[in-house]
Every structure is written in structure tokens, then in C-alpha cells.
Amino acid sequence: EAGVAQSPRYKIIEKRQSVAFWCNPISGHATLYWYQQILGQGPKLLIQFQNNGVVDDSQLPKDRFSAERLKGVDSTLKIQPAKLEDSAVYLCASSLTIGRGGDEQFFGPGTRLTVL
Amino acid sequence: RKEVEQDPGPFNVPEGATVAFNCTYSNSASQSFFWYRQDCRKEPKLLMSVYSSGNEDGRFTAQLNRASQYISLLIRDSKLSDSATYLCVVRMNTGFQKLVFGTGTRLLVSP
What we know:
- The structure holds 2 protein chains of 2 kinds.
- Chain A is mostly beta strands.
- Chain A is 0% helix and 47% strand.
- In chain A, a hairpin with a 6-residue loop joins β7 (65-68) and β8 (75-79).
- In chain B, 36% of the residues are buried.
- The chains are: A mainly beta, B mainly beta.
- Chain A binds chain B through residues 40-45, 48, 55-56, 91, 98-102, 104-105, 107-110, and chain B through 4, 8, 31-32, 42-46, 49, 87, 89, 91, 96-104.
């Protein structure tokens, strides 16, 4: 079974530039998550989709971050403009349903972003 | 106070040793608990769920103490391949049931 796919794997940009990340979840998984993992910290949830609807974006810095999942399958996360503190690994995860008991989240390999 | 707190380590142990990690959580309404493993520069992967009655999977044993809001992971007979970061994870009892991760505890097993 194919896992969660993400691209690009690495990205280096200068501050104030824009960047976009792409995620394709496991086939059939209704719920998709974007996490930010800063070096030395655990992943922090940025946004959670159920099909193509947002169910939690309370920790998404909406002045510069946006995400969409238009057809309820793959998703993009955008940062515009980037700041130095956005340097992190951006992890996408998916699960069959919206986190019911025993429902596992599967993570993609992540995109490592460096903002100079 | 952080929602999920862990000692970042690193814990340096020899092969064959027994090592234990602890984790505390602040929200008493937390619903479910997990340990994830994250290898260097890799994605997190579910190691095991943590049940109130405790559970064991081979060399790994997880315990939950709801009264003290405390979770533990015990690894017996450590292997070199156990070297990784172990993330304590709590599922919050909110409408969206999001996962909250601790910072992780780094384990280094040496020959």
C-alpha cells in the first residue's frame, strides 16, 4: 500500500518569498493533517481537513499560511511571505476518519524548509 | 505549562539495558494516549497505544496513570535499532480530537 506522498522533500528560500508544499494522502483516507515540526520539538498541528472541509485551523498563522484540499484528496500548504522562524519540517498525515478511538495517523516523509 | 511534557534526554544506554521514559499531560480531559517513534530525519510512526490497563508489545511496555496524568514507556533488552526519538502523544477530548505531541525523548543505544 502506498504511503503519504509529499513534495518537494527539501526547499530553501529567502525570507519574504513564497513557497508551496504538496501532499497526497493514502487512498481512501478522509482526514488530512498538516503539521509543523521545528528542530528539537514535536509536531504541531497547523490544520486538519475532513474530506475537503476544514475542521480545525486554530493554530494556523492565517496572515501568512493557507491550505486547501479542493477535491478532498491531495492538499497544498502555502506560506506567503516566509519568515526565518518558518524554517521547519512540514509533515502531512492522513487517517481513515477524524481521529476516532484507535484511528492511526500515517505521516509522509515531510518537506524540510529552510528560510534564509 | 506545556500540554505534554517529556524529558528531551538524550538517554545513553548500553545494549541490553532497560530504559524508561516518562511523560506528563496537563489536560485531565485527555482521551487517548500513544507513543510514536521518530528516527533521525524521518517521519513519526506509531509505536503503540497506551491503555488504562497497561499494555505490552514484545520488549515494550506502556503504562497510564490517569490520576497522576502520567504516561510511561519501558524498553527492555535495548537494541541498537531502538535508537530514536520517542514522542509522547495525547488525543484531546475536543470536538476535533486532535493529537498533541510532546517534544520527544531521544534514546541512544550503544554497543
